[in-house]
């Protein structure tokens, strides 16, 4: 299940534009790691290199290594489609499939991949919706369209969809930034539960959120606009928020820039 | 006291005199009467001129009345609104009158007999006969053309939107643009030249090929637009689940846009259903029923209309048949449009709770 991520010397490009440079870090299994940093410093870009979604963008290119339990995701012969089955992703804006019902949305990953047993599908959908704390709210309308849910419910539906394929790692790119405080709290609670089973990486703009949900926090920054983003430091969340070892981190956290 | 004064002042800045809701209708009626009056006085006898004068009077009158009562800003707003209405009427009037004329003249001979009999034993100058052979021809030729043109067009659009990068995609786009501009007679001549090389006689499928050439660019263009409307986030959501790209396109992108794609195809079908020139060259026309599109000349509705007008030496019976066939063709195209709308609504992404 949950796997360790080991990144070394990772650099990512959009065409000729270098978006992030020389990033190395380790993410422990069954932990929550938060990425913080000013806009445009490459948090999303870095996150997307962890499940080979970066190359979906035209011109997207990556150098360096990402080890998932000793296997290099960018090694020769690695199929990006298989990588994405093991490293799931939740996006900033909830994006349920508009043509599908709630049930079909959750079942989408299994159905579209074609590797499931019909008899198991109901159980998996129920388990995933329960895992995303959404079951009680939708169990009576599983056949209604997913786009009829509220924003927070839609985001939890997307989380259910992502965990239904049983990934090892769950990446979340600002999953709460489009949500109200109540829905945000619901998702934060959910993250606390999910880390029992998954390795979780979450990008957030909300310092309190990083402090609340994460075990480790990584601070990214860029020297100037147009320069590539870099990892400034990664440490236990408590340390980052109480006594960071780099001055820039402290400035950012205390709100002096960014 | 002072608060009352303040509220009064508020009212005076927020509220303004406004014309009652029926004003536009009164102005429209007035300008119509005035327009007709002026035209009669000036001795103009074209009703088009009457209408245009009335339209100009309507726009000017709206501005004048609104400027006096409501002020200049509201007057400009009303003029813009009335210009839109005038443009709408200018567009609708010819359309409605066309349908009106076709219906009035078409119903004369349009009955079950007309729809179920051919012209096989009826001379073009005599009354009687029907369009069964032309309906069969049209359905077969257009159907085959759609079977060829729609899949190729949709697949091309999928290539352009989902895969196309670089030179090849640019070249394909360029050729699609060029194809959009091909006159239908040229498409017909192109197929005709092939037929001449192989020394073939006219047959229905040759017409289908030319129609498919005309249909393809239309389908490509409309499908492209529909695929571009599918948010990238849906593709990424699917890819991030570990779904291969081709399945993502098949199961997520196409279902999301299928309504619009079908509408586009139906409109392209409607367009080629009225083509005469390539059919004249390649299918030739045939008063007898020929169910086989792969051998022998066939008829088709637009060709039938043309030939009834052209070959009947001014016979009234032929004119009636031509109008009735026109009405059938218009009805066919309208039904296609309705079907397309139905499919679009039925397949549209669901938003309800
Ligand atoms: N699709 C793209 N094409 C080109 N450049 C991009 C694209 N997405 C992001 N970038 C660039 O990459 C850099 C990092 O962006 P991003 O990873 O979105 O930052 P963050 O998520 O930290 O706000 C920015 O300079 C941005 O302009
Ligand atoms: Mg981002």
TrEMBL record, chain A:
Q: Which PROSITE patterns match?
A: ABC_TRANSPORTER_1 (PS00211), ABC_TRANSPORTER_2 (PS50893)
Record CDD domains: ABC_PstB_phosphate_transporter
Annotated Gene Ontology cellular components are: membrane
| Keyword Nucleotide-binding applies | yes
Keyword list, A-Z: ATP-binding, Nucleotide-binding, Translocase, Transport
Is Repeat one of the keywords UniProt gives this record? no
State any single GO MF term. Answer: ATP binding
Gene Ontology biological process terms from the UniProt entry: phosphate ion transmembrane transport
The ABC transporter domain is annotated at 5-247
Q: Which InterPro entries match?
A: AAA+_ATPase, ABC_transporter-like_ATP-bd, ABC_transporter-like_CS, P-loop_NTPase, PstB-like
Fetch the SUPFAM superfamilies from UniProt. Answer: P-loop containing nucleoside triphosphate hydrolases
Under which name does UniProt file this protein?
Answer: Phosphate ABC transporter ATP-binding protein
Q: Which organism is it from?
A: Streptomyces argyrophylli
